[in-house]
UniProtKB/TrEMBL annotation:
PANTHER family with a match to the protein in the record: B-BOX DOMAIN CONTAINING, E3 UBIQUITIN_ISG15 LIGASE TRIM25-RELATED
Pfam families: TRIM_CC (PF25600), zf-B_box (PF00643), zf-C3HC4_4 (PF15227)
Protein name: Tripartite motif-containing protein 16-like
Domain of life the protein comes from: Eukaryota
Amino acid sequence: RAQHQAALKTQDSLSCPICLDLLKDPVTIPCGHSFCLGCIKDCWAGDDQRKVYSCPQCRHTFTPRPVLNKNTMLAELSEGLRKTRLQAAPPAADSPAGSGGVECDICTGTKYTAVKSCLMCLLSFCEAHIQPHYEIPAYKKHKLVDATVGLQEKICSLHDKLFEIFCRSDQTLLCYLCTMDEHKGHDTISAAAERAEEQKQLVESQREIQERIQQREKKVQELRQALDTLKRSAQAAVEDSEKIFTELIQSMERRRSEVKELIRAQEKTELSLAEDLLKKLEQEIADLRSRDAELKQLSQTEDHIQFLQSYQSLSIPSETADLASINVDPHFSFEDIRKAMADMREKVEGIYEKEVKRISKVTKIQTVLIPDPKTREELLLCKRHTQTK
């Protein structure tokens, strides 16, 4: 255990307090603290105007700027520890990051798959390079998350600081320096607190959505049942209408035959009476013509005795029918029957039209899905959010 603690202390002493990684091109400044050459140069670049330089760790000031020389011993120790750590890395670190993986920001040459991202360092680390965050006490306060892309999107572009604050006035994320500049005096809250508030709203929105889904699923089920009932009812109505129309057609065919037979029977009766009377009248005309010829011949006889004897024996044929009782209509027809049939057709068509209109007014299912105002607002917000993405 003592050996392990000594190893951790050695790693801690070989870490740069600025980048928190193993020293690279280490330099030691007059106060005794060591840093990566690149890290301390970047740190002191902002102090060139004041000509006063301070240690990032103990805040000791120097004037003029100290000369930075590479610490060869620390460089060798740091490089040796780096090689040892890479050799001891698990097999998972031996595979380069694939097209879908997050690359380690520390690896040089071949980039290995990152397993964690640090929100303090704003870097992603493979299994080998993440070890200092587990072993060095100064790193243990850093917040590690699963390896993720787009870490730079979590940094303020103005101050290069992590977004930690949410401005409710402007509805945007801020770093703590933003609250001292252009967002000073705004309604601000920590990003975590804002997330907690919006998480509550999200849960409530999910609950409402689930409730509406259940309501609509219930309505869908009811509509499906109604549609099935409607289809069955419509099919039964079609079958009944076909049966009824078939029976009506058969009935009309029977009625047509009956009317036709009635007309023909009446026609036969009237024709029989008329033809019988016609024969009698024609026979009477023949008899009268014969008697007229005899009378004409008799009128030409000169013998008075013969005339009287013959005239007494001749008589006028009796009338077969009373001419006054025979009323012959030159325009006789079955017009009354035709008119009765036309009236019947109009009545049947009238009844048909009336019943068809009544059938067409049978209640139908009508649905108009109009979202309520709150739903429309949510839909618009979702649409805008999708478009911004």
